[in-house]
Design goal:
The complex is a heterodimer of chains A (145) and B (146). With 145 residues, chain A is of the alpha+beta class. Chain A has a single domain, classed as OB fold (Dihydrolipoamide Acetyltransferase, E2P). Helices cover 21% and strands 34% of the residues of chain A. Chain A has a 5-stranded antiparallel beta sheet. In chain A, strands 8-9-10 form a 3-stranded antiparallel beta sheet. Chain A has a two-stranded antiparallel sheet with strand order 1-2. In chain A, strand 4 and strand 5 form a beta hairpin. Chain A starts with 25 loop residues before the first helix and ends with a helix. Chain B is mainly alpha-helical and 146 residues long. The chains are: A alpha+beta (145), B mainly alpha (146). At the A-B interface, strand 8 and helix 3 of A face helix 4 of B.
Chain lengths: 145, 146
Amino acid sequence: MRVTVEQIDREREEELIVRCHDPGAAWVQGVQEAVSGQQTVCGWREDEMHRLKLSEVFYFEVVDERAFVYTQADVFEAKEKLYEFERLCAGSALFRCSKSMILNADRIDYVRPSLSGRFEAVLSNGEKVVVSRKYVAELKRMLGV
Amino acid sequence: MKNIMLWARRYVTIYGIIMLCTFFMCLLFNPTSELPVVSYFGRIMVFTLLSLLSMVVYYSRDELTPKGWWLRTALHALLLEAMLLPLAHRWGFWYSGTDIIVYAAFILLAKALWHLVDYGISARTAAQINERIRENRLEKRKDMIP
């Protein structure tokens, strides 16, 4: 396979075009994941703006119409709406897991069922979040179950 | 389409549970009884439909908390009893004071069975997901080894 890297001016927007036979091929998905992992979202904490890579984000949550970004050990406030996050995360490991949350599938340690028909996802930092049954199909699709 | 399939599956599951409960109830209390098949199945279908409609109590705009879920589950049980007991009496499924206690207990048992089946399905899904997560992790570890 031929790989071409072209250096461009700072004024121009960086982009990656993948020309492939099968868009669903594992290597194409790998490229998509790598690119989305480099995407950033702005998080605010004590009047300071932080640029957070999507790959660092554990989950986004909207509580009382306020959006929060959770990483390994920190919480940041964000200005985006949930649907904006959803659009931003398209093609990445982040997926809608409930009515108010977008979760990073790569950060899930394991899931366990609950009597309520929902699932509890235990994250790699020990946090527990709820995955609705309605959205578990998306997680299964992402993992290839 | 997905939603229709989900509700159809629920309908069949509830129907099966009600049939199972009715079978055991007849076996225990009235083993020699003969039921008019068509009207009997029709009545069970109505029971199933009412049970399914009563699930509207679980509807919420926001995600239900565990406490909220338990509260609605209790409310749902009460609603089922309130809807199904008078109807069952009207159709001659129970007559005396003892009957009503047994019938009410069977409704609760059917509800418990429903949640148990649901939990079983969730447990199977969770096992599949965990297996896949484990496989992905192993693959990543292999990729990292030079």
